Amino acid sequence: MKQPLILPGLGILKGxxxxxxxMIGSYYGRKRLHTISYPEERLALPENSRNFPxxxxxxxxxxxxxxxxxxxxxxxxxxxxVIYIKPERDENGKLTKHPTVFDxxxxxxMSCQICVEVCPFESIKMxxxxxYAAYEHFESLVLHKSDLAKSNTYYHGIKPTEATAVDANLExxxxxxxxxxxxxxxxxxxxxxxxxxNAAAKETPPTSDTDASD
Amino acid sequence: xxxxxxxxxxxxxxLGDIKVQIMAALPGAACEIVPNPGPxxxxxxxxxxxxxxxxxxxxxxxxxxxxxxxxxVTGVDWLDQTVSxxxxxxxxxxxxxxxxxxxxVERVVPGYLExxxxxxxxxxxxxxxxxxxxxxxxxxxxxIPSLTPLWRSCEFQEREIFDLYGIRFSGHPDxxxxxxxxxxxxxxxxxxxxxPDETLAFATANGKEDV
Amino acid sequence: xxPSATDWPKRSADLSDDGxxxxxxxxxxxxxxxxxxxxxxxDGETVVWLxxxxxxxxxxxxxxxxxxxxxxxxxYTDRLDYFSSxxxxxxxxxxxxxxxxxxxxxxxEYLRVLLAELTRxxxxxxxxxxxLGDMGAWGSxxxxxxxxxxxxxxxxxxxTGSRMMCxxxxxxxxxxxxxxxxxxxxxxxxxxxxxxxxxMEQLLVGxxxxxxxxxxxxxxxxxxxxxxxxxxxxxxxxxxDYDIRKVDRYGIYDRFDFxxxxxxxxxxxxxxxxxxxxMRESLKILDAVLREIPEGPILDPKSKSRGxxxxxxxxxxxxxxxxxxxxxxxxSDKSPEPYRYRVRPPSLINLxxxxxxxxGSKIADVMVILGSVDIVLGEVDR
Lengths: 214, 211, 382
What we know:
The complex is a heterotrimer. Chain A has helices at 10-25, 73-77, 114-118, 137-140, 145-148, 152-158, 160-203, 209-212, and strands at residues 52-57, 83-89, 95-105, 124-127, 142-143, 149-151. Chain A is α+β, with helices and mostly antiparallel strands. In chain A, the strands form two sheets. In chain A, strands 4-1-6 form a three-stranded mixed sheet. In chain A, strand 2 and strand 3 form a beta hairpin. In chain C, the strands form three sheets. A three-stranded antiparallel sheet of chain C has the order 1-2-3. A three-stranded antiparallel sheet of chain C has the order 7-8-9. In chain C, strands 4-5 form a two-stranded antiparallel sheet. Chains B and C meet through strand 1, strand 4 and helix 3 of B and helix 3, helix 8, strand 6, helix 11 and strand 7 of C.
């Protein structure tokens, strides 16, 4: 670094040249003007941008197509504990792998994304919407299942690369499950056929050569 | 303004050798090595409160070590632990013969508070040397000497340990709470600390009670 | 060999009430870098006694971490020094990796260095802006600095999802890989940065007002700085050659060729210049990383974040955060929560010698000295 030349006043003049260059330059191009007139203009957020979570549903039915199975992993791992889930039980008391209640308290959610990372079913993802200002805390800023459920099409709209990868993953998982099920099915059928053949062999007496040889 | 490249750092002597040198220089010093079972390999040197000032001064001033920089001072709370052991007792067996029986006995290992110091040497670029000092117990025998006269960096950190754990450091120039307010009662980082129930009624600005 | 700091306290003991004014600077103050208070006693305009008061931003981070899993504390480490969240993440990941022995793949190490140096760049830019703002430059340098810093924050947002609270490092690597076009965008930012630094140097280095306000102010000798536990640019401005990237060689820093700028006088001007020069050295490292970053996995497949139960033991790991030495001390008893979780905060310990630096100066210099320490209250109070 060169030794600065300190003549009285020269340093300040050099500095003022910098501020003048910046001020005049801001009228002539984006480089020195870094602000936009929000809300008339809006900057495009990068794809990975995250703000608050939402639940994904496939198809058109927010209830039936919901990917969430109420496994409660996100509720357990959430650091500020803002997720509240109540799983659904049928008339026999058995879990139906569907949540009746799924609440997220946006007042305390810190957008850490841990719920997304631990979800085994790709059902909770991060949204990038941020205009949530409201007049009261708990009526408006605690989101319920109906507010949180958004379609897969919406997910593709905000995060195309990620949504495509998720769809590919789910498809691969479905194929793997289908193959495993088919294999199991085939093994079961083979076992049944073998059992039937064994039973048939036991019932009919062993044929003697004399009957057929005529 | 000058810029220069760093010299190659020296290797710190193994903790066993350092202990030998300490015992040679200060024969009455009471210290032992506490091994660290985990993969990090950072064993510590536990020193009795009576000898810690002398040992620390030796570590700081001795030409072979020059631990001139105390990086981190931490407090740890070890609760009373109930340990159950199997001991052999004299007794009689089913046939009435004298024999030895095994019995499970429980004893309480009293807890203590601990101050852990991490020392580095800026002159020799070595470290860390982990120093541990334990108090007698968790209730009334909680005083250990302060190392602030040797390393000024301990000043705020020992105040924080006093604030959050309750260890009193004798010889500290300004021992008062650091993070909590002065009239706060209790030591919040202790393992058995209960936060006060704050759901009580309190007076609002216009004097009425708000439940 | 005893350094002079041991002959302290050296402050004036005669503080009779006659003519001594006691004021409280803060906690609501535009220049204290957060909610920070100093009780100052003045004789006219000269400082004769100064005691910092902490705890206004104490959020109980350590106790929360002792009740939460190792993985769940990672987002909270973002909020310690909220300007350099990626360095905090890396320091925590480093100490858990030391505690468990997990190894980190090559590409993840390069990514970590890349993001840590970008963090250093944006932190020092913000420091410049705030210091000049504290001196009364009314935010013009701050706006130029934030303009450049914004480009780096855009890079963070397109990679990690968030501009400041990144939550990106994991135990054994990084969370996700670079999106398409990120390296090109980073290359553009790194190539354009020297022009900004040249402009800052033209504005600041010879400026008579700055020189008059910072040279000779807050002088600290090297021996006092070491004894006081100062680290980072504060220590190097006092002439002590100690940079943890060179001493500990954590990560892959030993592969890069960079120098460590040192100051000759230990005053505020040196601290400012050391940080400017450090930014240039960071650009050298960034240039090398962007050229050499290899392909490969970014997370060790054997590592697990959720349900981590490290073996019994303890570890202390530290790194060169932009503010100084940031260390994490963890004691594990094989349960999912740490038994002891301690953050060694550089900002708090760099304030140890604040009184010594301010004694005898004028009240206006106190703000400049505090600005040159570069504290963030999130780290001081945790």
